[in-house]
Amino acid sequence: MICIPQDSVLVCRHFSPYDKPVADSQRMFLLFFQMFYIMYLSARVYFVVYNHYSALEPPDNLSCYLKVHIMENKTSAHGGLNLKHQIYQDLKKKLIHCVLPPGSELNELSLTEEYKVSRTPIREAISQLELEGYVKVVPKKGIYISDISVDSVVEIFQTRTEIEPLALRMAFPFLDIKTLLDFRQRFEEEREDELVPTSQLDMDMHLYIIDCCRNSYLIDMMHRLFDDNLRLVISTGLNSVQIHNARVEHIGILDSLITGQDPEASASLLKEHIFTCRTAALKYFSSEGYKNYRSRQS
Q: What is the mean pLDDT of residues 133-158?
């Protein structure tokens, strides 16, 4: 019993010490019950969905489309295979090497038959290739392989001229002498008429230096640029003609790196080499040889 003065009058009220705790315990009980009920419903929904898609065998009257999806999911989960990535890599390789010619059309149904998959991984791979500029999806018309403009050679060599010397300076402390000596020996042994092996060796040497710069953003960008460069070389016939013999220039760059004395001298040699290749390429695109190549392709 507690007496409280109010307006000169004592008002006595009875307070139980258990009033508030009882109210709090009721609220806590209701809250706990609601949480438990939500968890119970969530568990039921989970097991219903799990049993439906994982434990049950699909009925015979389901379409092959659904069965293919189930097979793909099992393959991805248990076999560690990513169909979308595999298809993307294979299509990208064919686009870079012009197995799928620039300007031609891709048929989605033909791709599903070729890779023996549903349309979903094909569409996912195509979406990724479209983001990278290799294809263009035109709604209600089709999928078209991006054409290659000769003007791209200016942008490619402009980027290489500025970025590759920077990558070399960054990579200089991490270059392996044995690897450099191996590149030098391979350039020494190459023949004058080995166009395709020389082109691959050229690209391998440049990418090795770039990969040693230890900057993932720069490495990713330059690998993409060299993919575009290779696609340009193949599509324009540069891989079938001798426009510039850079063998001596490559050996000079490698010798400068092997001595390991002055990274600036090596970067200067590399920049001069790229500029010389740019000049030779632009000269080829204005030549009769290139015009004859284009006429044979059309």
A: 89
